Amino acid sequence: MVSVALLSRWHVHADDYAREAKSNPSLSIQRVWDEDPSRGEKWAEELGVRFEKELEAVLQDPGIDAVIVNTPTNLHKEVIMAAVAHKKHVFTEKVLALTTADCEEIYEAVAKAGVKLTVSLPRLTTNYYLYAQHALDQGWIGELTSIRCRLAHNGAVPESGNVNGWLPPHFYNKDQCGGGALIDLGAHPIYLTNRLAGPAKAVTSIFQQSNERNVEESAVVLVEYDSGALGTLETGFLSYGSPFQLEVYGTKGALLIEENEIRLTSRQLDQEGWATPQQLPEALPMPMEQWAESILNGGETTITKEDVCSLTLINEAAARSNAEGRKVSISEVKEVFLNQ
């Protein structure tokens, strides 16, 4: 059994992770800490566990094996590095950190401490992603030429009684979040296309931001990959009814995924036109389940350091591209952290 402390209820997925931990027979929630003590005390009471107002006291407790981090994103590095220094295993909401340099520093500390770190990139465990990867690996798509992924919702659309929409107001705090729609919801299209298309070469982006908020509510990012493929990533907080879409195009086939509908056409298969796969791969265990398993039995999760660091790398390049109104090469961003 792994004894867990929940660190902050700031993120909208904090309650989801608490439910996952409670339902996992290998995990036991023992403590709550929050940078907002009143919020933390309420959460601890709801969960029936003790609240600790001092983070250091939680991390020094030998009875705590691991932590689940849902703090503001700008606190991730500080909190995670402190946890790792006390040899606590870490599960954290994405993104790991706001810069690639910080991600690398965290992973170095994790390796030195010999603990397990998992970042929640859940769509890499889904059956539709696994099918897309299989289609590419089998050659059904041929040479990958372009990929498009869209994920958006209406979380920032004003509704009766709430001018901010259903997202919490702090999701528009640039200092805490590090950005807006792209760094949050857009993370999913980024890490999915990174995994499918491989290393990126350059990024061009456009963010749209209203006068009322300090972060972008919509973003489109064009990624050039080393392979020659192009990626179009779309996200936003102002889209009602927008379905998740993943489109993969190549020299011998195409794959279209929209929510739970999957269609494939390929010159490599004995078929004409579009076909719906009769069977999909079995989904992998969710990230938290993999994390718990890795703590208890060793081994690594399917979510890799490359997945995590490349996610932040694209975010950094996209933010710079939008701010400077130009295409940004990945080598520019890497040069910054290599020289630090």
By CATH, the architecture of the largest domain is named 2-Layer Sandwich
Strand content: 15-25%
Q: What would CATH call the homologous superfamily of the largest domain? A: Dihydrodipicolinate Reductase, domain 2
Please report the number of helical segments.
12
**Rounded average pLDDT:** 96
Give me the secondary-structure category: alpha/beta
How big is the Rg? 20 Å
Query: For this entry, what is the oligomeric state of its chains?
Result: single chain
Task: Give me the strand/helix succession.
Answer: EHEHEHEHEHEHEHHHEEEEEEHHEH
Say how many strands there are.
Answer: 14
Largest beta sheet, briefly? 8 strands, mixed
Q: Can you give the helix content as a percent range?
A: 25-40%
Please describe what this structure looks like.
With 340 residues, the protein is of the alpha/beta class. The protein folds into 2 domains: 2-119, Rossmann fold (3-Layer(aba) Sandwich); 123-287 and 312-332, Dihydrodipicolinate Reductase, domain 2. The protein has helices at 14-23, 37-47, 55-60, 76-85, 100-113, 127-137, 174-177, 181-184, 187-197, 287-297, 305-324, 330-338, and strands spanning 2-7, 27-33, 50-51, 66-69, 89-92, 117-119, 144-152, 200-208, 218-225, 230-236, 245-250, 253-258, 261-266, 328-329. An 8-stranded mixed β-sheet has the order 13-12-11-7-10-9-8-14. Strand 9 (218-225) and strand 10 form a beta hairpin. Helix 9 packs across helix 11 (305-324) and helix 11 packs across helix 12 (330-338). The model has no long low-confidence stretch (mean pLDDT 96). Residues 129-255 form the GFO/IDH/MocA-like oxidoreductase domain. This is Gfo/Idh/MocA family oxidoreductase. Residues 18-119 form the Gfo/Idh/MocA-like oxidoreductase N-terminal domain. One of its GO terms (molecular function) is nucleotide binding.
